[in-house]
């Protein structure tokens, strides 16, 4: 077994952000992912200016699809707000592979099943060993399952269910659209255009609330595609959507045990209102790297819990619930 300085399980935004900082600090880093990159990841691919800044991503040199919305159209309770706050979209298929390659880490395709502590370090599937291990494997992260689940059980009340599809489409409305609580959905649906003729449409809702009403995301998907057709956003398209579930921000008390860390969706860090997880995944990955390199405390409790902590979201939500109007 070749010993590495750090093993990172999962090469999504949390894993690649962590690996990049570790490699920059001279660490020998192995990233294990069960998929070959580029790989599909169900995600609207909306990223905030904070994500762009945290990743030091220069849109001018980024070699893949990068879109900046001219406007965000918010539909709620029969009202429509148009916001001009700049936000961005990428395709996760491209973005994740680019970030992982940019990290400079050694990447091996391996479906991790077992992680155990042994002799002051960690052993992964009896094949890889390192004094540090970082769990960045998303909702089903094996580092979480093997080392953290009992100490930090996830709250089912915070589980989000999603249904979505990303596809080549010559969209003609370049704005991002969001529909809140449409048709009784306990969540929201989205239309997110990507650069050069790609589109992501989907919806997300609290799984428990859907279940308690005897509903599921498929029923809401039917309604949503009718809205897309009605509003002339997507017409005559034969969808093949897929579902995925992840956890919104819950307890972040136990995110480090010895020299094992969990990050991103492995913790459940997506914001409680808009369920944005890329930003907290990146920040948690970077903080895990700082803890390993500098001995910094690994804390996540001050990470943004609500997207509404950003001014424009709060502005929208306040008007949504007060029934006010916006330009
Ligand atoms: C439909 C949908 C839409 C979303 N839209 C947005 C959005 O627009 N903006 C936003 O900010 N967030 C969004 N999110 C949330 C966001 O996608 C996640 O929060 C984010 O991807 C978390 O990053 P991560 O690196 O923690 O995990 P992931 O991106 O899930 O990466 C985990 C990696 O671990 C690998 N892995 C898993 N198990 C194993 C194993 N056993 N062995 C080895 N490797 C393994 C996986 O292959 C994967 O590459 C959305 C989520 C969904 C489901």
Q: Roughly how many Å apart are the termini?
A: 62 Å
What is the mean pLDDT? Answer: 93
Structural class: alpha/beta
Order of helices and strands: EHEEHEEEEHEEEEEHEEEEHHEEEHH
- Anisotropy-based shape: globular
How much of the polypeptide forms β-strand, as a percent range? 25-35%
Indicate the percent of residues in helices.
25-40%
Identify low-pLDDT runs. 323-327
The beta-strand count equals 19
Give the structure's gist in a few sentences.
This protein has helices spanning 13-24, 49-54, 92-103, 142-148, 207-212, 217-230, 278-294, 311-322; strands at 6-9, 29-33, 46-47, 66-68, 72-76, 79-83, 88-90, 106-109, 115-118, 121-124, 128-130, 132-135, 159-168, 176-180, 187-194, 198-206, 242-247, 256-257, 260-262. With 327 residues, it is an alpha/beta fold.
How are the elements arranged and paired?
Blueprint: E1 6-9, H1 13-24, E2 29-33, E3 46-47, H2 49-54, E4 66-68, E5 72-76, E6 79-83, E7 88-90, H3 92-103, E8 106-109, E9 115-118, E10 121-124, E11 128-130, E12 132-135, H4 142-148, E13 159-168, E14 176-180, E15 187-194, E16 198-206, H5 207-212, H6 217-230, E17 242-247, E18 256-257, E19 260-262, H7 278-294, H8 311-322
Parallel strand pairs: 1-2, 1-12, 2-8, 5-14, 12-19
Antiparallel strand pairs: 3-7, 4-7, 5-6, 9-10, 10-11, 13-16, 13-17, 14-15, 15-16, 18-19
Helix pairs in contact: 1-3, 1-7
Bound molecules: flavin-adenine dinucleotide.
Residues 9-15, 32-35, 41-46, 111-112, 136-138, 140, 142, 162, 164, 202, 244, 246, 264-266, 270, 276-279, 281 line the site of flavin-adenine dinucleotide (FAD).
């Amino acid at each position: 077994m070749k010993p590495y300085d750090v093993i990172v399980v999962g090469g999504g935004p949390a894993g690649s952000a962590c690996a990049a900082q570790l490699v920059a600090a001279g660490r020998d880093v192995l990233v294990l992912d069960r998929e070959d990159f580029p790989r599909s990841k169900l995600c609207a691919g909306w990223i905030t200016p904070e994500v762009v800044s945290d990743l030091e991503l220069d849109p001018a040199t980024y070699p893949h699809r990068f879109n900046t919305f001219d406007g965000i159209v918010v539909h709620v309770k029969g009202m429509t707000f148009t916001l001009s706050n700049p936000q961005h979209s990428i395709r996760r298929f491209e973005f994740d592979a680019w970030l992982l390659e940019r990290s400079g880490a050694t990447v091996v395709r391996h479906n991790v099943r077992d992680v155990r502590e042994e002799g002051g370090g960690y052993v992964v599937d009896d094949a890889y060993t390192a004094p540090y291990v970082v769990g960045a494997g998303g909702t089903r992260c094996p580092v979480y399952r093997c080392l953290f689940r009992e100490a930090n059980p996830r709250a089912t009340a915070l589980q989000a269910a999603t249904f979505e599809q990303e596809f080549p489409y010559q969209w003609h409305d370049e704005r991002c659209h969001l529909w809140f609580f449409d048709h009784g959905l306990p969540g929201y649906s989205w239309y997110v255009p990507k650069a050069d003729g790609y589109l992501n449409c989907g919806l997300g809702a609290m799984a428990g609330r859907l279940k308690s009403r005897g509903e599921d995301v498929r029923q809401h998907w039917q309604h949503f595609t009718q809205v897309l057709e009605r509003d002339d956003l997507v017409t005559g398209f034969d969808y093949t959507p897929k579902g995925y579930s992840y956890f919104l921000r819950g307890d972040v008390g136990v995110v480090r045990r010895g020299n094992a860390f969990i990050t991103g969706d492995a913790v459940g860090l997506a914001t409680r209102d808009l369920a944005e997880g890329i930003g907290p995944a990146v920040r948690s990955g970077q903080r895990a790297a700082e803890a390993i390199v500098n001995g910094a405390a690994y804390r996540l409790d001050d990470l943004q819990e609500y997207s509404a902590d950003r001014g424009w979201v709060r502005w929208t939500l306040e008007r949504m619930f007060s029934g006010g109007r916006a330009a």
